Amino acid sequence: MAITHLVLFEFKPSLSQQDIESVCHRMLDLQNQCLKNGEKYIVSAKGGKNCSVEVLKASFTHGFVVEFANDEDRMYYIKEDLAHLSFVDDLKEVITAAGVVDFVAGEF
Fold first, then answer.
1. 75-80 contacts: CB < 8 A, separation 24 or more?
2. Tens digit of pLDDT for each residue in 55-83?
3. Is 1 in a helix, a strand, or coil?
């Protein structure tokens, strides 16, 4: 059962566009950097700048969707993968808020 991992960031207003783009590229590159038993395990990753015109868009400026093949891979990513954990630690300096929603498509 595939797990979709939705991540939302609100970047600090003081960050330059170049810094924001750098963080976003690092986030997407986790698909290549995160290894489990020497193998890539993130199925897909995509993201971009919030362009919603809806009133409910909140304060998040960027969103990312990461897909894992199963819960075991997701849990490894969250709790053990050093590339991911290092990235999360670095985020403390550049974001004011983050949101995460994980779901299995079709399970309500």
1. 76/36, 76/41, 77/5, 77/34, 77/41, 77/42
2. 666 789 999 999 999 999 999 999 999 99
3. coil
The pTM (predicted TM-score) of the whole model is 0.93
pLDDT along the chain (108 residues), means of 10: 97 97 98 98 97 80 97 98 98 96 97
Both structure tokens of 56: 């409910």
- Listed in sequence order, the residues at least 6 apart from 57 whose beta carbon sits closer than 8 Å to its beta carbon are 50
Q: How far apart are CA 80 and CA 36, in angstroms?
A: 9
**Three-state DSSP class for 42?**
strand
Q: How many CA atoms lie within 13 A of 59 on its CB side?
A: 8
CB-CB contact of 14 with 61 (8 Å): no
Amino acid 21 reads E
Residue 7 structure tokens = 């991540």
